[in-house]
Amino acid sequence: ASIDKSAQETLLSEGSTSRARRAPPVCAIAAASLVVSVCALAAVRGHLHAIQAQPGVVSQGTLSADSAVDSLYGDAAFGATHGLAILPDLDAHGLPNMDDVLPANGTRARWGIVGPGRIAHDFATALVGLGADLRAVAAGGLPESLERAEAFASVYAIPHAYGSYAELAADPEVDVVYVATTNQLHYANAKLMLESGKHVLLEKPATIGVPEFEKLMHLSKRHRKLLVTNFWTRWFPAVKWAENVVKSGMLGPVVHVSGDMAFQHMRGRPDRDRFVRADLGGGAMLDMGCYLVQFAAMFLGTGSSVGPNGYGGLTVKASGSVVDGVDVESSMIISNGQAGAAFGTSILRASDFTLKVYCTHGVVEIMPPANCPSAASYIKYEDAAHGETPVPCCAQPTVGSLEYRRPLPAPPTGMPRERYPNGMGFVYVIAAVERCLYTAGCHELEELPLDQQLSVVRVTADVLQRELG
After folding, report:
1. Of the candidates 87, 85, 5, 2, which has an alpha carbon nearest to the alpha carbon of residue 38?
2. Do 18 and 86 meet the contact criterion of CB atoms below 8 Å apart?
């Protein structure tokens, strides 16, 4: 039997983990209180009420369907055919479960951290919460580097603290490095680690310029080491759920994406605020705008090809305000020729940090903060393209809506308070990196392949070029 688009709507009714995915595919039909095997794919009409998959993973709302509902999280083959993201398998505490890939001898990848700043504290807390093996931390570039590294190490019981990045690069007990230095140092730090045989999780923006990232890609491939830009957003369950709703086609093709991410910098202490310092790679685009660009890459699609008018099939228009060589307000329009995105970012104003994807007969919202969300939702409208009567203006009938929530895991007891919202969300990307390292033949993460990382760098650099000249 064939499965049409209206038969794909279970993804809407499950906030499940991969344990649920391994269960037999079923359709939840609340109106009849009946469970039907997907194999039967019996035609069903009427309202299908969403089910709650498990405590803390809440799927709510009502939707209508005209045929059987296939569980996209219950049929791996169907999900793979449609390019759907696999939601992480989470334990009772909400932490990613890696039991299926961990080495039999219990050894884990050994982590190092370069740059013990604010965000590194949240990352280290997530490593501890996930039971990862954190071996070393290095500081450099500022006075009292060794003292700062040692102070950081004492908080997280890290065995080795170094006063230079080169010392950590030479440490044979470190396999993978999280680079969390300021933006202007990302390229040099990542290059050093790759050349030293380390896998690299590189805080965004990966690099300020395109040639630098191309060189890192070359090193990654030559040394057969992972290079992952830390757009941690990609691995949040709520983002994967939203991505699946869009990719399933149940709301029709994507037409428009909108989003805004902004905050006010510390105007009273510009000397201490990296966001307004050009020498530190400051500005709105390199801090928040690149998040929006990666959403364009996710929902509009990009490749590695570079055409005369765009990158990976994307064209860019941008304008903004510049102060002392730093973009403080940016607006951009990104298009793939069939659909477009309108984004705003700023370090002058506050923002709701929302992201919406508009399809022909539905809207998906990644709820704030969209760069690290715990919830997403959709609204489905009656598809006027298949209707028999005209749809009145402003009154297209709603036929369903659903909300997905996945609370983040709690930080381990005794750890410092979070420096950033939802800092424990780092566990998702950490688990993805380790999962790849334990899997033969894995050289990049499927959620964010190298060519797409490069496209994000190119588009971000293009916007900056248009603004800064």
Report:
1. 2
2. yes
What are the contacts of 463-467 at 24+ separation with CB within 8 A?
463/285, 463/289, 463/293, 463/316, 463/318, 463/320, 463/330, 463/332, 464/283, 464/285, 464/286, 464/327, 466/316, 466/317, 466/318, 466/319, 467/285, 467/318, 467/319, 467/320, 467/322, 467/327, 467/330
Closest CA to 65 of 47, 49, 42, 51: 47
Q: pLDDT tens across 77-100, in order?
A: 445 555 678 888 999 999 999 999
Helix 426-437 to helix 118-129 angle (10° resolution) is 60
For residue 253 the two structure tokens come to 């093709």
Q: What is the mean pLDDT of the chain?
A: 82
pLDDT digits (tens, 9 = 90+) for 351-383: 999 999 999 999 999 999 999 999 999 999 998
Give yes or no for a cis peptide into 411 (omega within 30° of 0). Answer: no
pLDDT digits 0-9 by tens, 199-225: 999 999 999 999 999 999 999 999 999
Q: Using the predicted structure, report yes or no on whether residue 289 has a pLDDT greater than 80.
A: yes
Q: Are strands 326-335 and 254-262 parallel, antiparallel or unpaired?
A: unpaired
Any idea which residue has 């039971």 for tokens? Answer: 131
The string of pLDDT tens digits covering residues 377-399 is 999 999 888 777 777 777 788 99
Alpha helix ranges (H) inside 393-449 = 426-437
CB 115 within 8 A of CB 161: no
Class of residue 112 by CB neighbours under 10 A (exposed 0-12, middle 13-18, buried 19+): buried
Tell me the one-letter amino acid at 110: R
Helix axes 210-223, 186-195, angle to 10 degrees: 10
Contacts of 397 (CB under 8 A, 6+ apart): 381, 382, 391
**DSSP 8-state secondary structure symbol assigned to residue 54:** B
Report DSSP letters for 351-396, one per residue: ----EEEEETTEEEEEPSSTTS-SEEEEEEE--GGG-SSPPPTT-P
Beta strand 110-114 pairing with 133-138: parallel
109, 133 contact by CB (below 8 A) = yes
Dist CA 306 CA 418 (whole Å): 40
Q: Are 266 and 277 in contact (CB under 8 A)?
A: no
The pair phi, psi for residue 26, each rounded to 5°, is -135, 165
